[in-house]
Structure formats: C-alpha cells, structure tokens
Amino acid sequence: MSRADLDKDPHDVAAMFDGVARRYDLTNTVLTAGQDRRWRRLTRDALGLRPGERVLDLAAGTCVSTVELRLSGAWCVAADFSLGMLRAGAHRPVPKVAADALHLPFRDGAFDAVTISFGLRNVADPDAALAELARVTRPGGRLVVCEFGRPRVAPFRAAYYVGLEHVLPAIARRVSSNPEAYAYLGESIRDWSAQPELARRIAAAGWSGVAWRDLALGAVALHRATRP
C-alpha cells in the first residue's frame, strides 16, 4: 500500500492514486454518502458550459467528472498525472491526456473553460498550477475549483475533523483498494486553505472576479473566476 506525505512529492502522490484507482469511484460515493454526484453536477452548472466549447478537466482521475461535463454538449478532455486513474477510466468515452498540472501540454488560450475537482490541494505547487490553468484559458474564459474547504460552524467543524481522523480511515479500510492513502487525504484536507485564502490565491494567479459557494456547510466549496 502507498501513501504520500504533505510535502506532495509528485511521484509519491501519483503512486498513491495509482493504488486507489481500482475502487476510487465507489470509495468516493460511500465516503460522501452519494453527494459526489451532486457536486459534479453543480461544478458543471457553475462553469456555464455551452455546446461546442472546449473544456479541460484537470485531475480528472477516472474521468467520471469529465463525462458529467460532457452532458453540456461541450468538448471535454480529461487530464491527470496518475496513469492508474486514467486506466481505471479507460472505458469512459472522453479524450484522456497524461499531464502534469505544473506543465500542461496545451497551447496558450486553448480552452474556453477549465476545472479541477478535489485535486488542487494534492499538487506540489497549487499557485503555479492555478497560473498554468490561466495560461491555457482564453481571455474571458472560466475557472471552477471544486475543493474541500473549512466548515463555517465551529461545532460542525470540530466533528468534521474528528471524522477525517477516525471515520474516514475506518470506511476506507472496508471499501478502498489502498486504505493507507486515505490517512494522507484526511491530513491534506485539514491542512488545506480556508475559502477566503484560496480565493486570494486564485486572484494572485491571474484570475479575476473570484467568488465561492459553500457546499456541505463549507466542508466543500466551489470557487469561480474569469480569465481577464
């Protein structure tokens, strides 16, 4: 079994996700009590996609999120640095690219919209990844980051962090193909920026009009922005 540390060495993170790929979709659905499906739909809605637009789904994993985006009629490509995750989604009929979030293999302004769901906190340099997403987005194009956040209400926040420490690993041991990885994932959620701080980081990376919408009482948030 493989897990990464919070220094987020790319090779360690990729190997860890290779290890969880086989049962990744099932584990996500169980851990979120099915809310992962709703969050994918809300991400698609937040992007405001139109038929024929070009969309990059970064950290797409098994490409289930890319299939959701394609329901809009847009042309969507899935990109991830875990070959194991892309192989696990090989049956899903969307273009797939093995790609490093810090060095995307696309020309400047290639996309009308870009998105990354539950992947930004696993990148070695999230600020550089946000800037790279801006580079490949046309002027006026849109960004949506769906990521874990910091719950607003103190009692719920305390219970949520206890759950990350104890409940998440227990469920992962029963469901995941690599339970050890979920210890890192819980740590990475606790260590991640709160919503106002992430909004500042998105703006500093070259995006404008940054706003967010809390989901699950702030345990998850959708951040939206536009490429100037």
UniProtKB/TrEMBL annotation:
<comment type="function">
    <text>Methyltransferase required for the conversion of demethylmenaquinol (DMKH2) to menaquinol (MKH2).</text>
</comment>
<dbReference type="InterPro" id="IPR023576">
    <property type="entry name" value="UbiE/COQ5_MeTrFase_CS"/>
</dbReference>
<dbReference type="GO" id="GO:0032259">
    <property type="term" value="P:methylation"/>
</dbReference>
<keyword id="KW-0949">S-adenosyl-L-methionine</keyword>
<keyword id="KW-0474">Menaquinone biosynthesis</keyword>
<dbReference type="InterPro" id="IPR004033">
    <property type="entry name" value="UbiE/COQ5_MeTrFase"/>
</dbReference>
<feature type="binding site">
    <location>
        <position position="62"/>
    </location>
    <ligand>
        <name>S-adenosyl-L-methionine</name>
    </ligand>
</feature>
<dbReference type="InterPro" id="IPR029063">
    <property type="entry name" value="SAM-dependent_MTases_sf"/>
</dbReference>
<dbReference type="Pfam" id="PF01209">
    <property type="entry name" value="Ubie_methyltran"/>
</dbReference>
<protein>
    <recommendedName>
        <fullName>Demethylmenaquinone methyltransferase</fullName>
        <ecNumber>2.1.1.163</ecNumber>
    </recommendedName>
</protein>
<comment type="pathway">
    <text>Quinol/quinone metabolism; menaquinone biosynthesis; menaquinol from 1,4-dihydroxy-2-naphthoate: step 2/2.</text>
</comment>
<keyword id="KW-0808">Transferase</keyword>
<dbReference type="GO" id="GO:0008168">
    <property type="term" value="F:methyltransferase activity"/>
</dbReference>
<feature type="binding site">
    <location>
        <begin position="100"/>
        <end position="101"/>
    </location>
    <ligand>
        <name>S-adenosyl-L-methionine</name>
    </ligand>
</feature>
<comment type="similarity">
    <text>Belongs to the class I-like SAM-binding methyltransferase superfamily. MenG/UbiE family.</text>
</comment>
<feature type="binding site">
    <location>
        <position position="80"/>
    </location>
    <ligand>
        <name>S-adenosyl-L-methionine</name>
    </ligand>
</feature>
<keyword id="KW-0489">Methyltransferase</keyword>
<feature type="binding site">
    <location>
        <position position="117"/>
    </location>
    <ligand>
        <name>S-adenosyl-L-methionine</name>
    </ligand>
</feature>
